[in-house]
# Entry
Amino acid sequence: MKRYLIPLTAFLLGSTLIAGIYFSILTWAQGWEYAASQFSLNRWYVLPIWVAFGVQAALYSILRFRLFIPTTSTGPAGAVMGTSGGTSVTAMVACCLHHVTDVLPILGLSAAATFLTRYQRPFMLIGLGMEIIGIILMLIVLYRERKKLQPIQKFQPVLETK
# Structure
């Protein structure tokens, strides 16, 4: 049962964490009404990022705790886990980076603020794409490791006793 609860919990925690960070940044920058309006405006970009982040967290937990792969080695899973972490961070930055534009003019960085505002959705799409690549890489590792565990088909004994 825990083989299913751990990935489900990781999915829920990962999605909740990224949603919390998203709303925290927006609420801090402009207030709750602004956060709600931005979410409503960008929900078709933000929701898939949250779901993909949760899926990555679930797949990471499967690889990390070897829940469905009872072997001592998971191949290049370590590199994939690093890639997954990097893509998740990049997606979070891509998702929320444009909200830094509210503070940048105060810091005298209005050109950067304009750039980030103008390319808000491409940043989110790039982040989502990187998350999807991370998910695909982890699924490939899981597939290859599961394939190694397939039983040998129709093993015939060399000596047969009658």
In short: The mean pLDDT is 75.
